[in-house]
Amino acid sequence: MQEQKNESIKQKLIDYEAHIDAYRASLNAEGVWLFLATLGCWSVGHAPSQLYAIAITFILFSHRIYSKLSDKRPFSSITKDLENTIKKELEEGDTQKARLHDLHQIRDIKLATKSHLKSTAIFLLCYSFLAVTLWHSFEVAGR
């Protein structure tokens, strides 16, 4: 019975890593669409319409990302739930320590800022383009 629980938890950890990777891949794919949509928004000649188009683009982009998530909870919540499951379902000992170590490895490697920056570079570039162009439009409007 203990071995079945251990295997089940191992699979949950594998699924969690896959969820993180899928989320970041989705961000990058959607980032490209965000970039193209931002370019389209700025091609509109009327300034208020441009801002309205940017707002709609941001809402659509956010909805598309959110709708693709298989687990809509924040990573910190998933990590905490997995930690609680490990502590509850596995008896204290080497197996429990090993699964907690695996979970902490996921948190320390997959969820680290450096890993996030490297795996979502396309998204970050596209999102920064949106931010810079929006800032520029407000700067021009303020003159």
Topology:
Blueprint: H1 2-42, H2 47-68, H3 75-89, H4 94-110, H5 113-119, H6 121-141
Helix pairs in contact: 1-2, 1-3, 1-4, 1-6, 3-4
- Please tell me how large the radius of gyration is: 21 Å
Secondary-structure element series: HHHHHH
Structure classification: mainly alpha
> What is the count of DSSP helices, taking H or I runs of 4+ residues?
6
Briefly characterize the structure.
With 143 residues, this protein is mostly helical.
Can you tell me about this structure?
This protein has 143 residues and is mostly helical. It has six helices and no strands. Helix 1 packs antiparallel against helix 3, helix 1 runs parallel beside helix 6 (121-141) and helix 3 (75-89) runs antiparallel to helix 4 (94-110). The longest helix has 41 residues, at 2-42. The chain starts with a helix and ends with a helix. 13% of the residues are buried.
Question: Key features?
Answer:
mainly alpha, 6 helices
